[in-house]
Amino acid sequence: MSADEIKHAGLNLQHADPMTHEKAGAGIFGFWVFLMSDAVLFALLFATYGVMLRGTAGGPVPHEVYEMKSAFIETLILLASSFTFGLASLAMKYEHKQHQLQAWLGVTLLLGLLFIGWEFHDFASMAAKGEVPSRSGYLSAFFALVSTHLLHVTAGCIWAVVMIAKIRTFGLDARVKINVLRLGLFWHFLDIIWVGIFSVVYLQGLA
Amino acid sequence: MVHGAWFWLLGRIDLDSFAFVRAWREPSLDRLIAAGAAAMVVLGAIAAFAIITRMRKWRYLWENWFTSLDHKKIGILYIALSGVMLTRAVIEAVLMRMQQAVAVNQPGIVKPEHFGELFSTHGSIMIFFMAMPFLIGLINYVMPLQIGARDVAFPLLNSVSLWMTVGGAVLMMASLVIGKFSTGGWSGYPPYTEMAFNSGVGPDYWIWAVTLSSLGTMMTGINFAVTIYKSRAPGMHLFRMPLFCWTSLCVSILMIFAMPPLTVATALLALDRYLDFHFFTNDLGGNMMNYANLFWLFGHPEVYILILPAFGVYSEVISTFSSKRLYGYRSLVYATMAIAVLSFTVWLHHFFTMGQNADINAFFGVATMTIGIPTGVKVYDWILTMYRGRVRFTVPMLFSIAFIVTFVIGGMSGIMLAVPPLDYVVHNTLFLVAHFHNMLIPGLLYGMIAGYQFWFPKAFGFRLDERWGRIAFGCWVSGFYLAFMPLYVLGAMGMPRRMAGVFQSEYLPWLLVAAVGGFLVLAGLVALFVQLWVSIRRREEASVPVGDPWDARSLEWGIAAPPPEYNFAHIPDIETRDPFYAAKEHGTAYDPPRHYDDIEMPKNSKVGPLLGIAGAACAFGLVWYIWWLAAAAFVAIWGVVIARSFVRDIYKTIPAAEVAREHQRWLSQVAAARGIPRELETTPANQGLAEGAAA
């Protein structure tokens, strides 16, 4: 098999030797498997949310708690950040200038931070109304699910900072490229989870 | 003010936290036993430290073992950890058997609360820190060799998993000395483990020890699955893999899907305890049934994580020692897969009595019984492998045969428990305890011991002593029957599990027999250690440097014992199942390769041990509310991970000339060795070369 035939779909490692391509394959497949495991974790948090939905203990119920406008804006921010990450991936794959990749990663990072800030603002206004996890089982489940997503986004932002530092240190070598691709998978995965949260938690809460 | 500073520095640790202080203040038998156990931990640690320092082995251990990314060394370390933890948990088991035998109509040797700690640590250790490290260690050592790989797919991740597990084990050991462990059993059911009923450190110890180990295990699952999918030698199709690799693959998939439920269950319980959430509390909308579902969504697949590797070992052992190709290879593969899938459909049988309707119970009862079918297929396949084979009754084979008989008995009682109405009668009695020990001792422990005896010569280059192996076998098997068959009777008589004492004199004779059995099991464990000691002393005469002491079939036996770091001087091309056996038949097993290449291997890394230390420190800080420690350790963990991602120089190259030199030295050993017939395989004549193998 020549290096061209086993080239990885999402990557352009150019004239690297077959071993590099093979290692890239294992590294990215391994990350997919990790995401699968992470998906199970989120699935169980969704299930727990479903179970706890009725455990409001006389406290606030979903449609009193959720600020739809805020949630919708958060959704737009996160979807936009997935789009900008897509542009970053294209910049990497088609060997545009390195600073283009860095710029798009930077924009993604800013959108991620904006999302985190917006969500903190939401949490703070909820807390001001006494809607805190210790109030009821339902609020516990809400906060566990949404905060786990938030923690993941935070981890993604830290990863993006590290990623930009790495591109500056090493340029675009095979390992950096593989890592950008993995960060991309992670970022899009979080987007999908958020779409789930928006539909299952917020939209369902309107009813 | 002083109190505030103290809390800031040491959290809720005070003098009474220490087992020694508690025994000093009130020297009852109960507390002296606790202090004795703590002393064993402390003295054991000091002794190990002193011996290593005296022998000046710290540098050697650090450079050759602790920081090594070699899957073989990591595997051995896993098994060593498992041995330490097995010893503790068996001693606890014997103590519990003694307690129950003594405490009929009178107080026993330990107080009820201490008894609760004993069964909780016994269960938690046996599952998370004995069984899991043992099977992960065995897979780590054997699987990459069997598929013709140089290492696992992610060697550093492998080391991190090991040290996370070690961190959890350290936490378990620390709980003996400082603080008290949970009394909530290995499953830690809330609301009993909630703050309202248990505000001490016990459940926190349980939560964080289990969480560390489950994170490590999940990463191991990813690692093994990717290794099997991506790192097989050319020509090693999935259906040419040895059965042990198939069971490893199924186990990895189970780990990937079944460990997250445990992580979620323990994390939500931690949120309840630390941040006043209400997932499983009695009040404010909590729902403990959700815990039961989450826990057993992990817990039942876990049973098969434990049992499947042993099934793989038995398949290898029985076919090797029957000198026959494994009977029904494909049916064994499909049965393994079927068991792995079905394992996700039966979790509810762990709580038939907890309130769901009869239809749901019936569904899960039928699903549970269904698992008996693929398992039955396997048992027949193993028996038919032996049929008309030239069976040699070596130690691994003895354990395998004992397994078949004993496991079928346990399976029968499992089918009984799968019937919900019957389960209502014996639920939470010793019948259940007898059943799951009857599955896990033959279905896990015998398999692990068989695997250890089978592959030990491969790992260390000399055979284990046969006579002491047989003594251990006799003790383990008779000990098991004496210890657990009476529990079936007691369960049927209605004796509940986890009782620190009873008031029914008619239980006494059975409890006495069970106690004798407990001591025999302990003797079996001691015999295994004696065997190791004796074998090390006589390693010269039992050495098998050529590497094939049992005339075996798969790739790992076709290389030197112990194997070189890079496993294969030349990655073999695979054309058949049992490739090494075929090569021996064609007389090509020891042909030198046409050329040697440079080999690239991962360099050592400190990351694994550092993350293990930081992980354990973070967990300890969380248990004791030492927030600065927990925060600092948490930051350290991610600092190390980020720093490591900037390290580029992670491979070393072993030059072709060195590979050639090492390989040719081994080939000359092969040429000098005398091939032996199977009758001589347990004698010093066995140098690891089978008769007729070298052309």
Automatic annotation (TrEMBL), chain A:
PROSITE patterns: COX3. GO terms for cellular component: plasma membrane. GO terms for biological process: aerobic electron transport chain. The keyword Transport does not apply. Belongs to the cytochrome c oxidase subunit 3 family. It is a multi-pass membrane protein. The keyword Cell membrane applies. It comes from the Bacteria. Cytochrome bo(3) ubiquinol terminal oxidase is the component of the aerobic respiratory chain of E.coli that predominates when cells are grown at high aeration. Has proton pump activity across the membrane in addition to electron transfer, pumping 2 protons/electron. The chain crosses the membrane at residues 29-51, 71-91, 103-121, 141-164, 185-205. Keywords: Cell membrane, Membrane, Transmembrane, Transmembrane helix. One of its GO terms (molecular function) is cytochrome-c oxidase activity. This is Cytochrome bo(3) ubiquinol oxidase subunit 3.
UniProtKB/TrEMBL annotation, chain B:
It is found in: Cell membrane. Residues 56-575 form the Cytochrome oxidase subunit I profile domain. Gene3D superfamilies: Cytochrome c oxidase-like, subunit I domain (1.20.210.10). One of its GO terms (molecular function) is heme binding. It is a multi-pass membrane protein. InterPro entries: Cyt_c_oxase-like_su1_dom, Cyt_c_oxase-like_su1_sf, Cyt_C_Oxase_1, Cyt_c_Oxase_su1_BS. GO terms for cellular component: plasma membrane. It comes from the Bacteria. GO terms for biological process: aerobic respiration; electron transport coupled proton transport; respiratory electron transport chain. The chain crosses the membrane at residues 32-53, 74-91, 125-143, 155-178, 205-229, 241-271, 291-314, 326-348, 360-383, 395-419, 439-456, 468-490, 510-534. It holds the Pfam family COX1. Belongs to the heme-copper respiratory oxidase family. This is Cytochrome o ubiquinol oxidase subunit 1. The lineage of its organism: Bacteria, Pseudomonadati, Pseudomonadota, Alphaproteobacteria, Sphingomonadales.
